[in-house]
Design goal:
Two copies of one chain form a homodimer. Chain A has two domains: about 140 residues, Rossmann fold; about 70 residues, DNA polymerase, domain 1 (Orthogonal Bundle), CATH 1.10.150. Helix content of chain A is about 45%, strand content about 10%. Chain A has ten helices and eight strands. In chain A, helix 1 packs across helix 2 and helix 1 crosses helix 4. In chain A, about 50% of the residues are buried. At the A-B interface, helix 1, helix 2 and helix 9 of A face helix 1, helix 2 and helix 9 of B.
Amino acid sequence: MARRDTAFLFDLDGTLIDSVYQHVLAWKEALDGEGVDISVWRIHRKIGMSGGLFANMLLRETALEITPARLDRLRQRHADAFNRQHAQGSVQPLPGARELLAYLTSQDIPWAIATSGRMETAAPNLAALGVDPATVPVITRDQVRHAKPDPDLFLAAAAQLGVDIRQSLVIGDSVWDMLAAQRARALGVGVLCGGYGHAELQQSGAFRVYEDPADLLRHIDEIAARD
Amino acid sequence: MARRDTAFLFDLDGTLIDSVYQHVLAWKEALDGEGVDISVWRIHRKIGMSGGLFANMLLRETALEITPARLDRLRQRHADAFNRQHAQGSVQPLPGARELLAYLTSQDIPWAIATSGRMETAAPNLAALGVDPATVPVITRDQVRHAKPDPDLFLAAAAQLGVDIRQSLVIGDSVWDMLAAQRARALGVGVLCGGYGHAELQQSGAFRVYEDPADLLRHIDEIAARD
């Protein structure tokens, strides 16, 4: 009996969009503004988790009091700082991102986007990719109860495509994507363009790791789409 | 015959100072300004090399013409963007950095700083650490012919301390520090606080890896300073 992976479920920031480092420093600015002292690399290693989980974990690690008002202020400060970077034009699609999505479409391979971010920060990224959320399934943190590393975002994306999650590939740049992929029983494919190391992605379950979308597209017959 | 490692030779940015991500986005801004299109994670993976080597490699990878004028403009744009971040107060010593240096001094263990940067960008970092270059050996890129991954900076630091490089530890956050340590026949100790992964540092020769200076200080009897 033939069995092929039939759908691509993409993370957005760090996987299709070159925005991780800007997000990291936007969180740094937000946390500094709240008097939360934390090293930048630790923020980087938490990026891509659910925003709420991320803030909870940071505040827990720094032993500060967590209040809903403080979390709201953090989220707002982060969004302001990130959107300032975006307005300067420093946030762009990663090499090969648009080409990879166009290739999948041309091959009738279903694909979707599943991001731990909210639509307010995802919208400009989708526009930069030329992705119209009216025609492409885009699952954001607004639509599920738990974001990554819970599997909900990818499960919702597969459901919206009408595909079996167990025959789907999850493409992501972070450890949280790879853990969520395993928890969903999808197959995880890592990309280095979010700044995690190769071994970090493999150790969290990536069955294959590429540099970026362009590198994945060059090697796509290694993982899918064989005809 | 007893043999102990007797000196600590430190990298600066990413090892004692939490400045790598700010340097990365400062280089991104400088390269954008020159019309050089390169993903941010690739800049991160080159940080800590000799600035000239770094710029040469980026320009080679992007197949642009390399002129001395363009390199000068890149260096100036980077320094301007980085110093803007510094002026905002976002660049601070890493946890435990000051305490580790104070501990070494209290134990009469010689230490020095060896950075691929120039004194113009290193000076505010040294001030933040409370290090006075008049009393502590600080080797910058201005003083050697080749910066990392060449071993010159660490060799010069050991010479200035009057210690044998083969009985010295090199503490750094980047692959380039670990390669330079091996080329100098020192022993490399990696720290994760520059954002490289654990395996990347081990694979480039770190014989031990800690999270940051505070973590190294907590475990210092693993690598040195046994009494």
